[in-house]
Amino acid sequence: MMAAPSPAEQIRQDFAPPQADVEEITRAMEAFARGHNSEGRRVVLITSGGTKVPLESRTVRFLDNFSSGHRGATSAEYFLQAGYAVIFLHRHRSMYPYSRRYSALNWLDVLRLLPCSAPREHRVEAVQSQLPGIVRVLQDYHGMKESGRLLPIEFNTLSDYLHLLLAAARALSPLGSNALFYLAAAVSDFYIPASEMPEHKIQSSSGPLQITMKMVPKMLSPLVKEWAPKAFVISFKLETNPEILIERARKALDTYRHQVVVANVLDTRRSYVVVVTSTEEEKLSISDEEESVGVEIEDKIVKDLTLRHTRFIEGTELN
Ligand code: PAZ
Fold first, then answer.
1. Is the dihedral of CA 64, 66, 71, 73 positive or negative?
2. Which of these, 212, 204, 205, lies nearest to 60 by C-alpha position?
3. Contact 214/205 with Cβ under 8 angstroms?
């Protein structure tokens, strides 16, 4: 009997070649990680946003999910604030650190034309009252850019995501326990192998659609065991039923043997999470009062996790 392919082989065999230039991005991630590590800085890989699973190879239709990328983009800001260098692996057009605060704006409503003295010339001005907190945000954004501590990398499809996660794990592996994986993206559990996917648009004239999807290989298992075995790894678990949340988070910890699962429920994910480890369940929440003054749950999550990461590096946090 033939052995089942490893997740890395399954990705190469079953998925369309990535649209992203994985080799070039890998070199950029390696140089980024090496450079910051040599300056004594920890490096976090944040995954963020949902994934798009094509149903046809010349894709007209795809399966998507709800994730906006808010968790990943917001957490990236707090990791930068905590002194980390951040590789931000995010879905194209999902939320982005700093600009995420204004993602609901229509820019044309924020900009105003000012007449100039020269005929037919105009200047453009932003209406500051429509951009709450913009001065501070601009200062933080430009400060972060000058520091060179954010490496943004985009993915479009599930295939891109899987190839880039593998590449990122290999780039961060040499950092040992100084590397942190913060896997907040909502990744599809199902896909159609490239060899079974129709090339052209599925015709509605053929009647109701029945599709069979395969399980996406679980990347956490080889990540923890082979690709970056010394790193501090945090996965997220989302459920809609609060009653099974902790049990599912514990199951993930037992299966993959990584350090932390951050458990959250769809409807309450902005104000309540549980940080689950093999020995603890730490509940983090945002009160109405905190919310009214702009406190964000990601601030608490990142504070909690960076402390655990320090203890992990020092060997005082349970592995
Ligand atoms: O991206 P977002 O801010 O809208 O949502 C965040 C989240 C719920 C996707 C994240 O916290 C999470 O739980 N990610 C893992 C989802 C899962 O695969 O279980």
1. positive
2. 204
3. no
CB atoms within 10 A of CB 138: 12
Question: For 118-127, 139-148, 167-176, 275-284, which range has the lowest pLDDT when averaged over its residues?
Answer: 118-127
Mind listing the domains of the chain with CATH numbers?
Answer: 7-104+133-202+210-318 (3.40.50.10300)
Taking the C-alpha atoms of residue 273 and residue 13, their distance in angstroms, rounded to an integer, is: 37
Token pair for residue 116?
């100039």
pLDDT digits (tens, 9 = 90+) for 74-114: 999 999 999 999 999 999 999 999 999 999 999 999 999 99
Q: Which of 13, 57, 51 is nearest to 198 (CA)?
A: 57
Q: What is the pLDDT of residues 2-47, one digit of tens each?
A: 778 888 888 888 888 888 899 999 999 999 999 999 999 999 999 9
| CA distance linking residue 220 with residue 234, whole number of Å | 10
How far does the centroid of ligand 1 lie from the alpha carbon of residue 267, in Å? Answer: 11
For ligand 1, atom 13, the nearest C-alpha belongs to 238
237 lines ligand 1 (CB under 6 A): yes
Encode pLDDT of 245-279 as tens digits: 999 999 999 999 999 999 999 999 999 999 999 99
What is the rounded radius of gyration, in angstroms, for the C-alpha atoms of the chain? 21
Q: Is 68 in the pocket of ligand 1 (CB under 6 A)?
A: yes
Distance 196 CA to ligand 1 centre (A): 29
What whole-number distance in Å separates Cα of residue 172 and Cα of residue 103? 30
Q: Output the six-digit token pair for 273.
A: 């999470």
pLDDT higher than threshold 70 for residue 155: yes
Q: How far apart are CA 65 and CA 85, in angstroms?
A: 28
Q: Hey, what are 232's tokens?
A: 């501090």
* CA 72 / ligand 1 centre spacing (Å): 9
Using DSSP's 3-state secondary structure scheme, residue 106 falls into coil
For tokens 């946090």, what's the residue? 317
